[in-house]
Design brief:
Largest sheet: 6 strands, antiparallel
Helix content: under 10%
Radius of gyration: 28 Å
Number of strands: 16
Number of helices: 2
Distance between the termini: 11 Å
Oligomer: single chain
Number of domains: 2
């Protein structure tokens, strides 16, 4: 049987905990890598994740875990751009969501609360104000890769599974949930069936093949019968008959169903 890659889609949603630790798809890098906006991925492709973490000298190590597949560090000390609006509700201080690693460009949207003072993530203004301070800066982090093979899913007989990627640092935790699913609109692949004798493994010529009760003809001189364009991930029933042999639906072998897969 010829085999071809089954397309698996990653539908990702972000979950984060802790001001200095977050995990999400690295949208810009994925787009640059694949030449298109990428929110779903095929098996053996890499979904790149943006990890924002504490990069100070005394920061603890980042521990990476995943419920399925492999997660790894692609690059370290990436400068990620941040756009953030800080709300001041009649107060004189607020906290940035992330630790800036560069200078901060700021602008009041509406009421002017005066020149802000930035000290790490803490922002203070001369006096209490009702206003919104727009800030642009960069924060340091790492780029992670997450890859899941079709075999990872097939070994568990899964058509859909949610994979949890987790990172921990300094007692904080961040996670991203990535859903792998075999979509209905996967690309059909040209498929040949090879028929062999169970007794001596020799190829069988002239065996009649039925796919889902529809005749597909007989095997050729190489023991092959073309089944047509079949959809990966879908289960098909098959019956093979030949004079002098027990048909596949009458024997005791588990050879009556198959699923198109990849190697």
């Amino acid at each position: 049987m010829s085999q071809s890659q089954i397309t698996i889609n990653f539908a990702s949603e972000q979950t984060t905990t802790g001001a200095d630790l977050s995990l999400a798809l690295d949208t810009d890098y994925n787009t640059a890598t694949y030449g298109q906006t990428k929110t779903t991925f095929a098996p053996n492709e890499t979904a790149y994740l943006q990890l924002i973490c504490d990069k100070t000298a005394d920061a603890g190590a980042v521990v990476k875990m995943t419920s399925l597949g492999v997660i790894f560090q692609k690059a370290a000390n990436i400068q990620y751009p941040v756009d953030e609006d800080l709300t001041f509700a009649n107060v004189d201080s607020a906290t940035l969501g992330l630790l800036p690693s560069t200078s901060i460009t700021w602008e009041w949207l509406g009421n002017n609360g005066g020149r802000p003072l930035f000290n790490g993530q803490i922002v203070t203004v001369p006096s209490a104000v009702v206003g919104v301070l727009h800030c642009e800066y960069k924060t340091a982090g790492d780029r992670l890769g997450l890859t899941v093979s079709y075999a990872d899913m097939a070994v568990h007989g899964l058509g859909e599974v949610s994979v949890v990627a987790v990172v921990t640092q300094n007692g904080k935790t961040a996670s991203a949930i990535v859903t792998f699913s075999i979509k209905e609109a996967v690309t059909a692949v040209a498929t040949d069936l090879e028929v062999r004798s169970f007794c001596d493994d020799s190829i069988l010529v002239g065996a009649q093949v039925y796919l889902d009760s529809v005749s597909k003809g007989v095997t050729n001189g190489n023991g092959l019968c073309y089944l047509g364009m079949l959809t990966p991930g879908v289960e098909y029933s098959i019956v093979v008959t030949k004079d002098g042999y027990i048909s596949t639906d009458s024997d005791v072998l588990s050879n009556d169903q198959f699923v198109i897969s990849i190697s």
